[in-house]
Automatic annotation (TrEMBL):
Gene3D superfamilies: Homeodomain-like, Tetracycline Repressor, domain 2. It comes from Naumannella cuiyingiana. This is AcrR family transcriptional regulator. Residues 12-72 form the HTH tetR-type domain. SUPFAM superfamilies: Homeodomain-like (SSF46689), Tetracyclin repressor-like, C-terminal domain (SSF48498). Keywords: DNA-binding, Transcription, Transcription regulation. Residues 35-54 bind DNA. The lineage of its organism: Bacteria, Bacillati, Actinomycetota, Actinomycetes, Propionibacteriales. GO terms for molecular function: DNA-binding transcription factor activity; transcription cis-regulatory region binding. InterPro entries: Homeodomain-like_sf, HTH-type_TetR-like_transc_reg, HTH_TetR, Tet_transcr_reg_TetR-rel_C_sf.
Length: 196
């Protein structure tokens, strides 16, 4: 999960509540099929209230996707920070990614993949995750928890490729695993391959 910088925008209490409701709705049902009218009906608000959050449906969707990944990143990093042993840190990272993705429906992830601005947010998060996995593997190798011959770059690229396939739905289609389950399996596979 990426550490993306977000502009500090001060929301009113109602705007923050609306944003959170919108996040829940879009995670559950995706966003491509909604119009602004649909969203105002579902959320019980005016268009003006929605336009205070973003200038268009596309910008609104992109901001919600960024919010989702920002919250996911915070969750993931807080889980990693609780672990000290390198093996546990790597497992915590990939397991926390799985947990963070649980609320995201296949419709949401398909819409993220289909819309270029949100696809870029996903790509940036995957790139960050690749770098983060590499860091965690190097940390474990340095401390003697992982095999000396582990190529952190290669393993992190394999993780990245798998994360991309999870995000596009290819893994679910091929295996029947949910995205969250696939991340759990990935964590087990990686640790089994590199630990001493």
């Amino acid at each position: 999960m990426a550490r993306i910088q977000f502009p500090r925008v001060r929301l009113t209490g109602r705007q923050a509540q609306l944003r959170d409701q919108l996040l829940t709705l879009l995670l559950s049902e995706g966003f491509a099929h909604f119009t602004m009218d649909d969203l105002t009906t579902r959320l019980g608000c005016s268009k003006r209230t929605l336009y205070a959050l973003a200038d268009s449906k596309e910008q609104l969707a992109t901001s919600i996707v960024r919010l989702f990944f920002k919250q996911a990143t915070e969750h993931v990093e807080s889980r990693v920070a609780r672990s000290r042993a390198p093996e546990r840190r790597l497992i915590a990272y990939l397991t926390a990614v799985a947990e963070a993705l649980k609320p995201a429906s296949r419709e949401f992830l398909a819409d993220v993949a289909a819309f270029p601005p949100t696809r870029e947010v996903y790509r940036a998060n995957t790139s960050w995750a690749t770098m983060r996995v590499r860091e965690l593997i190097l940390e474990g190798t340095t401390k003697g928890s992982f095999r000396n011959d582990t190529d952190a770059g290669f393993v992190s690229e394999v993780v990245s490729a798998t994360m991309t396939r999870i995000g596009t739905g290819s893994i679910q289609e091929a295996t029947g695993l949910t995205d969250s389950e696939a991340y759990g399996q990935l964590a087990q596979l990686v640790v089994a391959a590199i630990k001493r």
